C-alpha cells in the first residue's frame, strides 16, 4: 500500500519539478538546446535501464511510427515548453500542461472511430476552458497589448502535441513500454539535433553549473527514471490509480514554483488550478477502465 503512494507522489514530484529546472536551463541555453539535451540524456538513461533489466524488443514496430511519435511526444513539446517559459512562470506553465487530457478527448474521435465524445467529456472541456480564461483574467481584463499570448499558445500547442502522441502510442501496445519510451526519445534526439543545426541555435548566456545540472536532471529524471517508476506503478496499482498523476503534476508544479522559483501566485492562479483539476476529474470519470486515461499523465 505504502509503495504505490510513494511511487505516485514520486512521479508527481519529478514531473512537477521539471518546469523550474527548464527555467534554470534557459538562463544559459536556447530552447532547442534544452530540448535536445533532455532527449539525448533521457535516451541514454533509458538505454542503460533496458540493459540492466535485460529488456528485449517484443515486436517489430516501424521506426517511422517511432519517429512520428517522437516528433509529437518529445521534439515539439521539448522545444515549445522551454520557449513558452521565457514568457511565463513555472507555476502557470505547469497548469497549462495539465490540459493534456482535454486534448486527448478532442483528438480521440478522429483517430479511433469506436470512441465517441461523451457528455462528461464536453463538460470537462468547457470547464477546462473556463479555467484557462480565469488563469489569464487579469491580463485579458487590461485589454490592449497587455496580454502576451505567445507563451500560453506555445504551452497549449505542446499539450496538444502530447495528447496526439499519447493516442498514437496505443499502436505500440505489443512492445514493452520502457523500450517504446527509449525508442521515442532516440528518434526525438535525432530530430532535435537537426532542429538545433537548422535554427543555428546559440548559447544566449554564460554556461553555468546550475544550467548543466538542470539539463542532466531533465534528461535523467524527467525523461528517464520517471518512465520506469510510471510503469512500476501501473503494475503495482493499475492504470486507474496511476491516472491520479494528472492531478499531482500541475499541483506540484505550482507549489514548487512558489517555494523554489518564488513565483507570484494570485487568486486567479489558484482558482484556475482548482477549476482545471475539477475538469480533469470530470473528464476521467467515464473512462475509468481505459488505460489511455492513465497514459494521459505521461509527459
Give a verbal description of the structure.
It is a single chain. The chain is mainly alpha-helical. The protein has one domain (2-295). Helices cover 76% and strands 0% of the residues. It has helices at 2-25, 31-52, 63-85, 90-97, 100-111, 119-135, 137-142, 150-168, 177-198, 209-242, 245-260, 267-284, 291-295. Helix 2 (31-52) packs across helix 10 (209-242). The longest helix has 34 residues, at 209-242.
- How many helices in DSSP terms? 13
How large is the radius of gyration? 18 Å
Uncertain runs are 287-298
Strand content range:
under 5%
Oligomer: single chain
Q: N-to-C terminal Cα separation, in Å?
A: 25 Å
Order of helices and strands: HHHHHHHHHHHHH
Total beta-strand segments:
0
User: Which word captures the global form?
Assistant: globular
Main beta-sheet annotation: none
Assign a percent range to the helix content: over 70%
What's the structural domain tally? 1
Give a quick rundown of the structure.
This protein is mainly α. It has 13 helices and no strands.
Topology at a glance:
Blueprint (H helix, E strand, L loop, with lengths): L1 H24 L5 H22 L10 H23 L4 H8 L2 H12 L7 H17 L1 H6 L7 H19 L8 H22 L10 H34 L2 H16 L6 H18 L6 H5 L4
Relevant terms:
299 residues; mainly alpha; 76% helix
Amino acid at each position: 500500500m505504502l509503495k504505490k503512494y510513494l511511487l505516485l507522489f514520486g512521479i508527481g514530484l519529478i514531473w512537477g519539478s521539471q518546469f523550474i529546472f527548464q527555467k534554470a536551463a534557459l538562463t544559459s541555453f536556447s530552447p532547442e538546446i534544452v530540448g535536445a539535451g533532455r532527449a539525448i540524456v533521457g535516451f541514454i538513461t533509458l538505454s542503460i535501464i533496458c540493459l540492466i533489466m535485460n529488456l528485449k524488443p517484443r515486436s517489430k514496430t516501424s521506426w517511422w511510427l517511432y519517429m512520428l511519435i517522437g516528433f509529437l511526444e518529445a521534439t515539439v513539446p521539448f522545444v515549445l515548453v522551454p520557449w513558452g517559459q521565457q514568457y511565463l512562470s513555472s507555476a502557470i506553465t505547469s497548469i497549462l500542461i495539465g490540459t493534456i487530457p482535454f486534448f486527448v478527448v478532442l483528438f480521440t474521435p478522429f483517430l479511433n472511430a469506436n470512441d465517441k465524445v461523451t457528455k462528461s467529456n464536453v463538460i470537462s472541456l468547457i470547464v477546462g476552458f473556463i479555467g484557462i480564461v480565469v488563469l489569464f483574467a487579469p491580463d485579458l481584463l487590461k485589454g490592449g497589448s497587455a496580454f502576451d499570448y505567445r507563451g500560453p499558445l506555445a504551452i497549449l500547442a505542446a499539450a496538444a502535441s502530447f495528447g496526439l502522441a499519447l493516442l498514437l502510442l496505443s499502436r505500440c501496445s505489443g512492445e514493452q513500454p520502457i523500450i517504446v519510451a527509449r525508442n521515442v526519445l532516440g528518434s526525438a534526439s535525432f530530430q532535435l539535433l537537426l532542429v538545433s543545426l537548422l535554427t543555428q541555435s546559440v548559447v544566449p548566456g554564460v554556461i553555468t553549473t546550475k544550467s548543466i545540472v538542470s539539463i542532466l536532471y531533465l534528461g535523467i529524471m524527467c525523461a528517464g527514471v520517471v518512465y520506469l517508476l510510471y510503469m512500476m506503478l501501473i503494475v503495482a496499482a493499475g492504470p486507474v490509480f496511476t491516472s491520479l498523476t494528472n492531478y499531482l503534476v500541475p499541483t506540484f508544479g505550482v507549489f514548487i514554483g512558489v517555494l523554489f522559483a518564488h513565483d507570484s501566485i494570485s487568486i486567479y492562479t489558484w482558482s484556475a488550478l482548482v477549476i482545471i483539476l475539477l475538469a480533469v476529474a470530470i473528464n476521467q470519470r467515464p473512462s475509468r477502465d481505459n488505460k489511455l486515461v492513465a497514459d494521459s499523465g505521461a509527459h
